[in-house]
Amino acid sequence: PEAVHAAAKAALNAQSTMARLDRYGPMEGDPELLDAVRQELAGRQHLDLDGSALLVTAGSNMAFNAIAQVILDPGDEVILPMPWYFNHVMAIQLAAGVPVGVPAGLVPDPERLASAITPRTRAIVTVSPANPSGVVIPGHVLAAINQLCAERGLFHISDEAYAAFVHGSVPHQSPGQIRGSGSHTITLHSLSKAYGMAGWRLGHAAVPRQLLAGLAKVQDTVMI
After folding, report:
1. What is the pLDDT of residues 111-125, one digit of tens each?
2. Mean pLDDT over all residues of the chain?
3. How many C-beta neighbours within 10 Å does residue 192 have?
4. CB of 107 within 8 A of CB of 81?
5. pTM across the whole model
6. Are 75 and 95 in contact (CB under 8 A)?
7. Does residue 165 surpass a pLDDT of 80?
8. Can you name the residues that pair with 190 across neighbouring β-strands?
């Protein structure tokens, strides 16, 4: 968008901005951007961020990859409703984890997902609106999956890169809006889709605070 180009040019011309760009930035992301992210998530999107930390990443794919590195030991499993997003599969495999595809329906059936849980399961992933199907998962279904994760000690990874692209009668809802979900829910967003900024490689994640120390190691090693 032209407004983005204009704002970027103005920022580059500001001496204070240039001084910061010549140095390594904070691991979590620039404070001003984090403040804007918090206002967006807690304000407009009504996420319950109690128990959560915010992290700026090089797109939401990097966020997913970092999370897989932190929560998975070799052989641990992540449940992916089918059809799945191929980058999630690769990130899990890079972490020596096992992607478990479950034919739970385009609107995932929580009972089918529950039947796939084993002692090695660490997380269930939902993508809404979905890639590749485009299906918007109704809020009550996401709530049931989120409750399942809470009851079974799993993380609910909610990829919401396409949250701005909803067509039809079912509105986008985030499981991160559920009160008390912050301690086990991971919410991923991307500027690539919503703002047309794919090449800028910017995304952000709301993550359970207990994961931040591990994620800091991945961020510092891979990105910074």
Report:
1. 999 999 999 999 999
2. 94
3. 18
4. no
5. 0.94
6. no
7. yes
8. 203
Going by C-alpha positions, the residue among 122, 109, 133, 197 that lies closest to residue 157 is 122
Q: For the chain, count helices (H), then strands (E).
A: 9, 7
Q: Output the pLDDT for position 23.
A: 81
Where residue 173 falls among pLDDT bands split at 50, 70, 90? very high
Quote the radius of gyration of the chain (alpha carbons, Å).
17
Amino acid at 180: G
- The DSSP line for 2-14 is HHHHHHHHHHHH-
Q: Directed axis angle between helix 59-71 and helix 86-94, to 10°?
A: 40
> Which amino acid, 152?
R
| Greatest extent of the chain over all pairs of C-alpha atoms, in Å | 57
Convert 49-58 to b/e letters by CB count within 10 Å (16 or more is b).
bebbbbbbbb
CA–CA distance, 2 with 209 (Å, rounded to integer): 36
